[in-house]
Amino acid sequence: MPPAIEIRDLEKSYGDVHALAGVNLDVPEGSFFGLLGPNGAGKTTFINILVGLVRKSGGSARVFGHDVEDDYREARDRIGLAPQEFNVDRFFPIREVLATKAGYHGVPRDVARERADEVLKRVGIYDKRDTRFDWLSGGMKRRFMLARALITEPDLLILDEPTAGVDVQLRHDLWETIVDLNDHGTTILLTTHYIEEAERLCDEVAILDSGRIVDVASPDELMDRGTDRIAVSLRDPPSSVPDLSALDGQYEAAELTEAGLAVTAQQGGLVAPDLVRALDRAGHEIVDLEITRTSLEEVFVEMTRQDDREEMEVSN
Ligand code: ATP
């Protein structure tokens, strides 16, 4: 079975700008996949190539085994896209807009109307079915974009910043809807600037920076690469850092704090038991211990920043 998305050496240049500079990526069928990257990293270009809005300059892109250019129709019919921009027919009732869109994809008129009702119910704006797009609130517009992506019952749902500028309640509603779709087999490709969203939802994320994939891993694996902080409160805070040689170099730094000691380590959860034993043996009474894991956001910032530095080094 081919992957949902299969990308090989994908390139896109706009004049001198290399928006995509040789991207290789596989998104397995059924996964909830995140594409993260700072502004200008190439995410929208990547998505636009998949849906046939932008022509690639080199390499290949396949969706469920169909080349996005040579087999455009087959590839496009499997994709539902909720883009960042509201590129919607504003003058017709939203139910009509949906039914017409389904019609473009070969769905008969009566089935298309039923489907329009279903997706409007699914995203919670069925009562607005006879309203035109312009008259929806900002949050309802976002809901509608998801409904429009779902009208063709896609196998691959691409969401480009689906929760940009929406309130907490709607964000949670949208999450629930897309998690449910994914549970029922729809592959999801999500781009977001809310790193917490990726951390919460995605099985795997690719970090894209300056048109290149910097890393592909699960949010947990990425967070394991960051540094954790173990804060230990001691009954009698010491005047110098206790002897931690028993930790065998498993930590990066140790410093005194007002309450006791703070130790930074790559994998705080693994180091903490040894740290407790070492302190105990040295006669310290532990009152409290707290491990703060690096957030995906911190790892992301570090990775994309490091990449900048490397690029600067190369160009110098
Ligand atoms: P954001 O998070 O800000 O939406 P992005 O990761 O989606 O950014 P892209 O929109 O794909 O990034 O842009 C990648 C690069 O390609 C940027 O340098 C951008 O200026 C450039 N670019 C994108 N579209 C065009 C275009 N039509 N013509 C010229 N340059 C373009």
UniProtKB/TrEMBL annotation:
Gene3D superfamilies assigned to the protein according to its UniProt record, in alphabetical order: P-loop containing nucleotide triphosphate hydrolases
Q: Which UniProt keywords apply?
A: ATP-binding, Nucleotide-binding, Transport
The source's superkingdom equals Archaea
Q: Which residues form the ABC transporter domain?
A: 5-235
InterPro entries attached here? AAA+_ATPase, ABC_transporter-like_ATP-bd, ABC_transporter-like_CS, ABC_transporter_ATP-binding, DrrA1/2-like_C, P-loop_NTPase
Which SUPFAM superfamilies does its entry note? P-loop containing nucleoside triphosphate hydrolases (SSF52540)
One Pfam family assigned to this protein is DrrA1-3_C
Give GO MF terms, alphabetically: ATP binding; ATP hydrolysis activity
Q: Which range is the signal sequence, renumbered to this chain?
A: none
Output this protein's name.
ABC-2 type transport system ATP-binding protein
Supply the source organism for this entry: Halopelagius inordinatus
